[in-house]
Amino acid sequence: MLLPDTRGKVDSFGTTRSEYKKKRQRPLQLARQLARQLAHDPKNIEAWFLSLCQLLHEFGISEGDMYNYDESGFMVDYGRSQWIVTKAPDRQSYLASSQNRETVTVGETISGDGEALPPLVVLPGQLHLEGWINNELDDDVLMAVSDSGYTNDEISLAWFEHFDKFSAKRQTGAWRLLLLDGHGPHATKDFLDYGDDHKILLYYLPPHATHFLQPLDVVVFQPYKHWHAEAVDAATRTGCTNFNKVEFLAALQSIRLQTLQKSTVLSAWRQTGLIPWNPNLVIDRLQAYAATQPRTPSPPQETPPQTVVETHSTTRALRSLAMQLVDDNQLDLNNATIRRFLKGSLKQAEAGNLALDYLSRTQAAEKAREQRHAAVNRSQVLEYLGIPYAQPPVGSLRFAAPAQYAGKGRFIASNYSAICPETPSKPVAYPGATPQEQRIVAAFGSQLSRPQSEDCLTLNVWTKPTAKAKKGDKPVLVFFYGGRWSIGGTDTPFYNGQYLADAEDVVVVTVNFRINIFGWPGAPGVSKNIGLLDQRLAVEWVRDNIKGFGGDASKIVIFGQSSGSVAVDFWSYAYADDPIVSGYISHSGNVFSFPTNTEALAEQHWYNASAMLGCGTSGDVLPCMRSKNFSDIKAAAAKVKPPVATSQARSQPAFQPTIDNVNIFSVDEYASRSLAGNFSSLPYMFGNNDNEAGYYKIAAYAQGVVLPDAAWDA
């Protein structure tokens, strides 16, 4: 009820009518403003997109199984103003219109592949009338009535069953996803239970965000209103002065046909960044909008962080102090000025608490975002690049087994590290080479001019937040690159793990390890297979840390290509009793694929390189070799004459794995161990490529070797 408009009469009314109590209204403006600010915060919207991405991939939702449902109210006969041509511009001009102000609710459902399901129409009333159904509407339209013309719990549940019936007819996957607002009838227990029982995921839009996140709101309902207004105006011009519910229903089929065209529906998904997946489209708009809004000055950086947790006690302390002063007769609460001061102080404290709480959450979100890096082409995949797993192998650690990384503090894993020192393959003018072939070979042969450094013992991780990730239950794939032990690195398009992590629910890891003379030095008294030790330490790092990326340390599989594939097979024999991993995959290589050095041959090559650097041809030359610039060492190693190749089609490097009977065995020993079952008995997948010899034809041509096809097929 409305009370008289003077304070005195309000006070009087309250004292004369004891059943009523006077209460001051609280303004909603601040609460609504804060809610809208939260809804427009790009970080919150990014989190919403990320959660949606998890659901889509976890449940395998296709575009055709993704839906948006929303309702819109239509004032039945409300058209729009029109432009007219008149001789009397000063006269008011009116268009005939009825006085019918009834509201009809229409609920529409659109799919991610551009289709519209039969709608819900809610009419104001208590009973269905025959005239309402004598129209051109399809029989599949769900008609309902309510006193207000709006939906309620019962109608919403009936619609949900209606949606289930028609979406199931076109379902392709096991689950469907329904995007809708959090309106009360959409979140009842019966509604939620029905979704669970029929494998329909409900994903709610954030409050105050439907105008930029909901496809129907952003694109579809605007032309819908336009065509409704056109229908009202057309009817009015033909003399209809009572555009009622019957008229509305008669026009609805035409309105829908003109509105729900496939191009319009697809545009709705596209402009909300949902299909194709492009969250940045929305987030960039929000950031641009935020940049135009006035900002509250940030608090000084020196503000102690504990202030955030002390604010609640500050509010309580103010109240307690006020009551103590009253008890001591030092404060008169009958004084209006005192009361206003106390109220203002308490409100300031509460407002400060709200602001500081919001600030703390914002800072936490910013810190979390800094520590993750969305992959460029698969933004739902998080990539962590250049993570060190070992100390930089310089100084006394050059030509030595790797030492576990001992760094402390925060590490921003946003960029690849340098690749390990190598001498890239030279470009080959192969007959008939296309530009595409040249780009592929350049990436495959380490001709992309990546920076090189001995501080290269790093790994990269790609993972996608899913239900398995939250449980730390994802399988883990750890990759070793090929390159004939001489070239290679993880910073190449061939080994970017974002695509595999996006396609499969796995964590992907790629590992940098030492190659060339730095990985297979041949120096007496130290390991001659340091590159393999790098790989082992990297996998130990994965075992100890991968849970933080959603991976399961008991589900690690190592895989590799070419010489990286051979390294995987080496592992299966070298660590038969302690493999760490649970499986192997080898692409184009096993322990019998490439020759290895004997210890004598490895040491001969080592001293040849040391002699070129002035470090001597015998004895302990390690201190001298460790004092040299890595570029000079690399250049000397490239001049060492390699052993005679075992195949015309394939040369071999001077610095490569060496038989040490610990990590590497002879061919005969591998055969004996294989027959005796002396290897880690784990699942193993071997494979090769079609046209396996294709790349080697290019390398052979570079050496002046041209063989007939029969030789390559042998």
TrEMBL record:
Signal peptide: none annotated. InterPro entries: AB_hydrolase_fold, CarbesteraseB, Carboxylesterase_B_AS, DDE_SF_endonuclease_dom, Type-B_Carboxylest/Lipase. One of its GO terms (molecular function) is nucleic acid binding. PROSITE patterns: CARBOXYLESTERASE_B_1. The keyword Cytoplasm does not apply. The keyword ATP-binding does not apply. Residues 103-227 form the DDE-1 domain. Keywords: Hydrolase. Residues 377-696 form the Carboxylesterase type B domain. Belongs to the type-B carboxylesterase/lipase family. This is Carboxylesterase type B domain-containing protein. It comes from Cryomyces minteri.
